[in-house]
Design brief:
CATH topology of the largest domain: Hypothetical protein af1432
CATH class of the largest domain: Mainly Alpha
Number of helices: 19
Largest sheet: 4 strands, antiparallel
Structural class: alpha+beta
Number of strands: 7
CATH architecture of the largest domain: Orthogonal Bundle
CATH superfamily of the largest domain: Hypothetical protein af1432
Length: 409
Amino acid sequence: MDISALKSFQFLKHLSDQQLILLVNKSEILKLKKGEQLIEAGENDEDEFFLLAGELDLKDPAKKIGGIRTVQANTPEGLKAITRERPRPYRVFAHSPAAVLKINIDHLKAILSEAPIESYEVKQMLREDQPEDKQLFFDIYSDLRNNKLALPSLPDVAIKVRKMIDSGDNAKTIAQVVNADPAITVKLIKAANSPLFRGTKEFETSAQAIVRLGLQTTKQLVTSFTLREVFKTKEPTIKKRMDQLWSHSIEVGAICHALAKQVPGLDPEQGLLAGLLHEIGNVPLLIYAAEYPGLVNDQDQLNRALEEYGPNLGSVILKRWNFSEELVEVAQQADNWKRDHEGPADYCDLVQVAQLHAILGKQDLSLPPMDQVPAFEKVSQGRFTPETSMQIMEDAKQDIEETRKLLAG
């Protein structure tokens, strides 16, 4: 048969000639006489039917009078699969002599899964009969493969400041960009005057604040301050969950900031940023999940989806934002409690220990004991135990609260 003619059909137009040839070789062409039955109402068969020529009648058995719809080949309706629902809602028979391509649905799905997926109907075919968390994964995967994944964007002021500092611009020039965002300006000045940086003189301008903080600290803080916008949504079904995610990220980031001061080689501001970003992959997942009411209302299933797909998506986002490999590693491995590596503690170790501190006293049995996590040994280097680590956190309580205020204010 003419392979090119099959590209007119809704589900088949996405396939290459080679894929169509493979599909036809695994399929059957049925020649029907007028009045001959193709499908019985109520059947749960595993085939899809495409009308190549002629006309078919679809009879609704619930209607004793009328209830017949005729479908012609090469019309918009005729170029779709015939009555895709299961069980079959119609009895289908030939209105005139007709030719029909009969394709096993599993063969069709297998070949479609290797094709670019742009059609909503194709997505529905591949997603159907799957639990909603798997449907969520399919939508994200197909959009990612087709460069259509709606990933959050880093706010412009953060992008500009990061580029300027990396390019060696001075504090005065950078301050001009910061001043374009009054909220960030206020937070930066507040940070420079806070007990966190122990200033002896009160500063009033962003340029002065940048000088006190230093360029790298300014870079990390501006990024941290702007991240709040990334964690916002207008979707009422997931707003509470998104706010919880931001609150948790602040808590882990604040603990990272305090804890990094005790760990040689780790920068507190970079630690803060690592903590804020460790679950960034959950942001687009929650936004996509808003389309699945059953998933949003089933917190256990939603949590499983976030745990399974969040880390990989987080690493994709941070690579797109041109963040360092060490922060990409944080997004990818922050919940891999068996992670171990050569050399000193890194920011992923720091985030893991911060997460364990964040759940102290909350009876969260989903995380392992602190002394059984390789990251704790890396961070402590024998200098403190889980008990003394708790005391360090108690001593740093004021710094942690100050960091929270800077981020949440």
